[in-house]
Design goal:
The chain has 12 helices and 19 strands. It is of the alpha/beta class. It folds into 2 domains: about 180 residues, Alpha-Beta Complex (Quinone Oxidoreductase, Chain A, domain 1); about 130 residues, Rossmann fold. The mean pLDDT is about 95. Bound molecules: nicotinamide-adenine-dinucleotide and zinc ion (ZN) (2 copies). One zinc ion binds next to α3.
Amino acid sequence: MKALVKRYPERGIWMEDVQMPEVGVNDVLIKVKKAAICGTDLHMYKWDEWSQTHCTPPYTMGHEFVGTVVETGAGVRNVHVGERVTAEGHIVCGHCRNCRRGMGHVCEHSLSVGIFGKDGAFAEYVTIPESNIVKLKDSIPDDFAAIMDPFGNATHTALAFPVLGEDVLITGAGLIGTMATGICRFAGAKNIVVTDLNPLRLDIAKRMGATLTVDGSRGETVEDAMKQLNIKGFDVGLEMSGAPAAFNDMVQHMYKGANIAQLGILPSDTKVNWSDVIFNALTIKGITGRRMWETWYQMEQMLLGGLDLSPVITHRFPFEQYQEAFDLMESGQCGKVLLEW
Ligand SMILES: NC(=O)c1ccc[n+]([C@@H]2O[C@H](COP(=O)([O-])OP(=O)(O)OC[C@H]3O[C@@H](n4cnc5c(N)ncnc54)[C@H](O)[C@@H]3O)[C@@H](O)[C@H]2O)c1
Ligand SMILES: [Zn+2]
Ligand SMILES: [Zn+2]
């Protein structure tokens, strides 16, 4: 079968003919229909510092997908041939202290589909353990089913603190920040201010429900947005850029006693004025992955309740045009990019 393989520990991704994956006793074999390119895939494509320390080529990339079940292992009970499925990409051990207390997203031994420990879904077929399979109601379109993984990051972060009636600051209108904008609007936030340096992405944030956007590349500031909205600081901050400047901008503009959910991966040498955190009594919560399985129930219910993610998906390519798709992702002139298999 054809697959997009991270073959060498260097920049790039390679289309190859590879063996069909083996279907273990608890596995489900899925024919991939659509797969989305994630920011993490771009990190691995560029082979940056994070990839060099977390990934060991060769492996098939891809962890955001939707497809159809074509075969099940002998031990599979609740998933059937012909069903449309997607999956949670973190395969957890089920036995460690965190797994046993319902915190699988911080499992001691998790593997990550298409990132480390398990071949991924940029391929004609992928195997996933039954425990990780998610079936969604038919009324949810395939395009949304293919991006449940990052939608889950957005949901986990956006709902980490109550947002109903609150003023929310989102730094980074990337693939996840724009979805988080829609979630906060859906969940009843009052004002949602979104910052980025990319006008195209801020335009998507507007369409997802931002009250105001702040384009740093044009000299716009959070301070000005606060004046326009007549607010003294934000109640909830969602840091979704991973940029130290954005994180600092956020810390400086929170209301006393406010909450920050930190999803963006900040460099280890990021500096912050700790006095702002301490004397303003801020809470900063790190967010990883999706809660298993509350986040998934929340996501499905928001989609059934009318949350529309379509402004976030801007491009679709046949998988053979993967190079064009990665070039586009690297340019940043896009929202979510889908590969059709
Ligand atoms: N913790 C987790 O489990 C987890 C999971 C997925 C992604 N992430 C991280 O979350 C972040 C968001 O992911 P994504 O896929 O949306 O990435 P993305 O690259 O699509 O979005 C990041 C956005 O931040 C913007 N940005 C850069 N500098 C900025 C600044 N100074 N001010 C405002 N905006 C700025 C960029 O223009 C971009 O649009 C990334 O850091 C990613 O690595 C974390
Ligand atoms: Zn992803
Ligand atoms: Zn575990």
